[in-house]
Design brief:
single chain, alpha/beta, 16 helices, about 40% helix, globular
């Protein structure tokens, strides 16, 4: 069985953390004998303005074709217009880039699996029609909760993708319900999941791990891992330091537009650290070195890094958004409200001073994600969906 994945994010050597959850699922599918090829189109401005746009600089070192962990990945360029958000790029331009890649490299997939309703879903709809192939769409979060509400044209693009797909999957139950509400389309819930076998307690102690990572060994460490943007709640998390004792430090792991502003906090010298973007294999190390993992986002789909933290039995501070409550099961009362520094500070105090995360709660959360969010288990279900669609 040959499956073509079309997605707007996939890891590369220069961006190892981009769309790593896709790679996790692809590798799980490969272990089941599914032949997956990935096409991840790259936006590119006209030659005149290309040297001045950050988006072009970010992608300039990514090769147009590379093999990663046994999977062929193609990164064809498509023309991106100034002022046009990435999700709003016309489907036809992206589809043309995908079709040219299929023809140039003589790809012959049996089925297309697109991720995110826009832009990948819109492009997949065109490609599937051109090639006479069935296609499946997976919804991840922002393509349901954010983008369709920007404008009438954005909602139209969302509806077109969702209604035209042969099958629709959602990574969380809340996305399934929202899709039904917006489009009247039924979907199936299938989280991407993670390779939980990679998230076992390491042999090193926390102190040893911190020395390896260059982190302070004499402080309580709160770690954020993700894209550094305002919508991830990074500024509220940084502001929380004002109300915490000097023995508490925050480590931001990732990259994004908020990185520069976060770096300009001289009053938090030796208490605020920015590690930058790291390979996914190192995410586990930063989590294990932490006393708390925090992700105070305004919106989320199904954040895999939360699953990873729970797998390592690290206390987690999250907002009650998107699919996060599903990750916490019977313990969703541990979640906090969005955009609230006071809620963050109170929860940090609860964990450090009131032993909020008892061993029993940590074990309950661990068992919940082991049962529902293991990438291999979910890949078995996804392969069955592929077979059903082909039949």
């Amino acid at each position: 069985m040959k499956v073509l994945w079309i997605t707007s994010a996939y890891p590369s050597d220069s961006q190892p953390g981009s769309g790593v959850f896709h790679e996790t699922q692809v590798q799980a599918l490969r272990s089941l004998g599914v032949d997956v090829t990935v096409i991840c189109p790259v936006p590119r401005s006209t030659a005149f303005i290309r040297p001045f746009r950050n988006v072009d600089k970010r992608y300039k070192d990514i090769p147009s074709k590379y093999q990663r962990k046994g999977v062929m990945v193609y990164r064809p360029y498509y023309l991106a217009l100034p002022g046009q958000l990435r999700w709003a790029q016309p489907d036809k331009r992206i589809a043309a880039a995908v079709l040219k890649t299929i023809e140039d490299h003589e790809l012959a997939p049996d089925l297309i699996h697109a991720h995110f309703a826009m832009p990948s879903g819109g492009a997949a709809r065109i490609v599937a029609a051109e090639k006479g192939l069935p296609w499946i769409l997976t919804l991840h979060g922002s393509d349901v909760n954010v983008y369709p509400h920007y404008s009438s044209s954005a909602k139209r693009a969302f509806l077109q993708s969702v209604k035209m797909a042969d099958s629709v999957l959602a990574v969380a139950g809340n996305l399934q319900r929202k899709t039904k509400e917006l489009a009247g389309r039924e979907s199936s819930v299938l989280p991407i999941g993670i390779d939980l076998s990679q998230f076992q307690q390491p042999d090193q102690s926390k102190q040893q791990m911190r020395r390896v990572l260059g982190l302070p060994v004499d402080k309580k460490i709160i770690t954020f891992i993700g894209r550094l943007t305002e919508a991830k709640g990074v500024f509220e998390l940084a502001q929380a330091l004002e109300f915490l004792s000097n023995d508490v430090a925050i480590v931001f792991v990732g990259d994004g537009p908020a990185k520069e502003k976060l770096s300009r906090n001289p009053e938090f010298k030796n208490r605020l650290f920015i590690a930058g973007q790291v390979d996914n294999a190192k995410v586990r190390d930063y989590l294990f070195a932490s006393d708390i993992f925090a992700l105070p986002s305004y919106t989320e789909g199904m954040p895999t890094v939360v699953i990873e933290a729970i797998a390592l039995k690290i206390p987690v501070i999250c907002t009650a958004v998107g699919g996060v409550p599903e990750l916490f099961g019977d313990h969703r009362d541990l979640l906090i409200e969005t955009k609230s520094v006071s809620s963050l500070v109170q929860r940090i105090h609860d964990i450090f001073n009131r032993n909020l995360y008892t061993p029993r709660i940590l074990q309950d959360l661990y068992e919940h994600i082991q049962k529902n969010y293991h990438a291999h288990t979910n890949a078995i279900q996804l392969k069955e969906i592929y077979i059903k669609q082909l039949n």
